[in-house]
Amino acid sequence: MPLVIPQVLKLDHEELHDGVARASREKGAIGAAAERVLRVMTPHMEKEEAFAHPPLGLLEDVSRGVKPSDAEIGEALAMTERLRSGILDMLAEHRMISAAVEELVAAARAANRVEYAELAVRLIHHADVEERVLYPAVAILGSYLKLRFGEGRASSTQPS
Questions:
Q1: What residues make up the domain containing 119?
Q2: What is the pTM of this model?
Q3: What digits encode the pLDDT tens for the residues 6-51?
Q4: Is residue 71 in some structural domain?
Q5: Within a domain: residue 156?
Q6: Which DSSP string corresponds to the chain?
Q7: Is residue 154 a part of any domain in this protein?
Q8: The pLDDT of residue 79 is above 90
Q9: What is the tally of structural domains in the chain?
Q10: Would 119 be classed as within a structural domain?
Q11: Is the pLDDT confidence value at 147 over 60?
């Protein structure tokens, strides 16, 4: 069974994406700025949903001592390694998104559209949570799975 992204993360991405898509339909500077945000944000979110967020679906069970299946361990380790090896690119993408979001903030303030300025703040907050909490949690989870269960070939002879 493939790893499942925690619903709260999936919904957060959907709400943010929908908000920026709504802003992109605005006329003028807000729409143009939101279009730029979408261009850099959408492929980044797709990457996160492909390999950065799914391992977190194991976190709740693992924290309770429930052993994932060998297939889940193998899949999680592959994803955590992909995040670990691509972390600099992911962080660079966050900087590109932030730069585009700053344009959206400026356009929203100039047009006195508080809802889009608030959306921009949520986007920046989301990226900060990913960088400071979620990405490190994925890395630690990968290290834990590797130490505790090996490379996805869990053995009953390994120490607890």
A1: 7-149
A2: 0.89
A3: 999 999 999 999 999 999 999 999 999 999 999 999 999 999 999 9
A4: yes
A5: no
A6: ------HHHHHHHHHHHHHHHHHHTSSHHHHHHHHHHHHHHHHHHHHIIIIISGGGGGHHHHHTTPPPPHHHHHHHHHHHHHHHHHHHHHHHHHHHHHHHHHHHHHHHHHTT-HHHHHHHHHHHHHHHHIIIIIHHHHHHHHHHHHHHH-SS---TTS--
A7: no
A8: yes
A9: 1
A10: yes
A11: yes
